[in-house]
Design brief:
Length: 338
């Protein structure tokens, strides 16, 4: 059984999620200790426990330590099965992170799957649905499977109650992914998602983005979705180039002016547009596991974050495949497997 330290590197829930994903994919049992030991609320919180239980369900795993607050866990997977699944986090915990835990195993399953996930869809410190749908999944689909995600209902902090509906047509082996340059700019557009909040918030946010990024009205879009249980606001700038689509987002919160929310997105998008780096740091982190499962591939990104280097370490512990990390320029790095 593989022994893992949950406090290594970045020390967050990503270590557990990556471990669950690879355990299911490779059929390798693991024991992890010191789960989120340095966090304000250490151990398994509801969103982490939901990931463990969901993984155990689709992999028929034997599990010890699956309790709230537990800092140790043993996970022994059996055969992963596709099919119809519904998992509810029970809080506003991130459905997109739960989805990314289950996806690697389900895209390699023998049969197709449909997965309904309930919880938060737009969370601080987690990829929102827009990032998942426009940036991450197109690259996964480029590797061979067909994965489609639909936002049934937004779920914001603290109310939760969101829902994602995901269909997965699997593939036995992923094709390698190589992204070394982004090519010509095709489109930059801005989208605002608004639930149970006045329309002037979206208007103010889009005005800031339009002026800062010089976007015409045809590239500005507002989506009103009042199916959400509670109020919420997500601002996205979606940048499509020949090789890749990147998404930059910010979430509104009480007391934060709409103009400041928009300015956060503008800053990130402007920095990306001013660089020649194709893969942003969030996406870089999330592409490591698919590359490892494909067995090869390479991409160019910015200076690797602690999240990224920690994820690389955990993947190497499971696969014994070492990522090659090389600095290309003063601001860009190559990450690959061969």
């Amino acid at each position: 059984m593989l022994k893992l330290d949950g406090s290594q590197g970045e020390g967050g829930g990503q270590i557990l999620r990556t471990s669950l994903a690879l355990s299911m994919c490779l059929g390798k049992a693991f024991h992890i200790h010191s789960i989120r030991a340095t966090r304000q609320k250490p151990g398994l919180q509801p969103q982490h426990l939901a990931a463990v239980k969901a993984a155990a369900s689709i992999a028929h795993a034997e599990v010890e330590g699956a309790e709230l607050g537990s800092q140790t866990l043993s996970f022994v997977p059996q055969t992963v099965e596709g099919g119809e699944y519904r998992f509810a986090i029970g809080t506003a915990g991130s459905t997109t992170l739960l989805f990314q835990t289950l996806l690697p195993a389900l895209i390699r399953a023998r049969h197709a799957s449909r997965v309904i996930l309930e919880g938060g869809t737009h969370n601080p410190m987690a990829p929102p649905f827009e990032f998942l749908n426009h940036a991450f999944l197109p690259l996964i689909n480029r590797m061979g499977p067909t994965v489609k995600a639909r936002l049934v209902r937004p779920g914001y902090v603290p109310a939760g109650g969101g829902e994602l509906d995901i269909s997965i047509q699997p593939l036995s082996h992923l094709r390698p992914l190589t992204i070394l340059q982004r090519g010509k700019l095709r489109e930059t557009r801005a989208e605002v998602l608004l639930s149970h909040l006045p329309a002037h918030i979206a208007q103010r946010e889009l005005a800031v983005i339009a002026e800062s990024l010089h976007l015409p009205d045809t590239c500005l879009h507002t989506h009103f979705d009042n199916l959400a249980i509670g109020p919420g606001n997500c601002v996205s700038v979606i940048i499509t180039t020949e090789a890749i689509t990147e998404v930059f987002t910010a979430l509104g919160k009480r007391g934060l002016p709409a103009e400041q929310v928009a300015s956060q997105v503008v800053q990130e998008a402007s920095e990306y547009l001013a660089s020649d780096i194709p893969v942003g740091h969030y996406l870089a982190d999330q592409l490591l596991l698919p590359l490892a499962l494909a067995g090869s591939g390479r991409f160019i990104t910015g200076t690797p974050s602690l999240h990224t280097t920690t994820n690389m370490t955990v993947i190497q512990q499971f696969t014994e495949k070492k990522f090659k990390l090389e600095q290309v320029t003063s601001t860009s790095w190559s990450i690959g497997l061969s």
